[in-house]
Design brief:
Elements (H helix, E strand, L loop, with lengths): L1 H13 L5 H11 L6 H10 L2 H23 L5 H21 L1 H6 L1
Length: 105
């Protein structure tokens, strides 16, 4: 790493287009943070958070709709059962699209 920075500094003295600041920025960007379990988990969940939230939301709607259909029998029972079943299927589909939810289960 130090060899690269020294080489870049020598180059910066020869060519006006590459400055010592550029060499310092190159050295800073080459230093990487250590990979920990938290950073791996964060990068895994970053791409899947939308599917996890959508799945949880629709599964929650499923539970609410089926609860309302059970408590209030009447004209709206068919609609609430239909809404509950559809929301449950869609929520399960969205949850199963997320690899982390499948791996956890």
């Amino acid at each position: 790493m130090q060899n690269i920075v020294a080489f870049r500094l020598r180059q910066s003295r020869r060519s006006p287009g590459f400055s010592a600041t550029s060499a310092a920025l190159l050295a800073i960007s080459a230093v990487k943070a250590p990979v920990t379990g938290e950073t791996q988990l964060a990068s895994l969940l970053r791409g899947e958070i939308a599917n996890i939230v959508a799945g949880a939301f629709f599964l929650f709607i499923c539970v609410i709709a089926l609860s309302i259909a059970t408590i209030r029998p009447g004209k709206s029972t068919r609609l609430m059962v239909w809404l509950g079943v559809w929301s449950g299927m869609y929520g399960a589909q969205e949850s199963l699209r997320s690899g982390s939810v499948v791996a956890a289960g």
